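Good morning C.,

I know you're traveling, so I'll keep this short. The sequence:
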Amino acid sequence: MSLEVIKLQCQRGEKELFSELSFALRSKQLMRIEGQNGTGKTTLLRTLCGLYQPEAGEVHWNGKSIKKLGEEYLKDLFYLGHHNAIKADLSALENLQINTALAGETYSEDDLLQALDDIGLFGSEYKPTAHLSQGQKRRVALAGLLLSKAKLWVLDEPFVALDGFAVKLLQEVIAKHIENEGMAILTTHQEVPLTNGEILSISLDLNSSSTGNESTSSDD
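The tokens, ready to paste straight into the viewer:
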């Protein structure tokens, strides 16, 4: 499995965020996207998921453009954005049922309840998510990771609003995913150990035309 970004250029309005951005990611690798607020980290992640069309450049999955792959690419992708993508009037269980079904995955109710329990939502599985705390809502969204069969995880600040227990659990989930031939791309402001495998990094500088578009190995 491989993800290749080729001379990507993105902008917001009239502002160029980055250009000529190229890198590759393969199985058992994790990449951290770094940079100050406003440098285009979220835009880059959304572009990798096909949710934002770049001004120039391409994203390839296993040697083919994601534009041409369409649904075939989405089956291999798990995306978690800033927003939790959950419906406030539905319970944690109902949200997880819908999200796994949209991903083309089928699980028993017992499997879904176990994932919610494992992520720390025991006793809240049937409550409307509107009544949950921000940390609990984030856990509902993250519960899908415990079940996901997707090879590529794209995670935008996944540790936001989580307590110490949930941070440790998520670290373990990400590390296991990488060990099992998966790959992940994420942004985070928190310095947390993520995997014993290979970690790459991309820094998006505010002056996008001059710096920050190279990938480097890291032991972080």
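Safe travels,
E.
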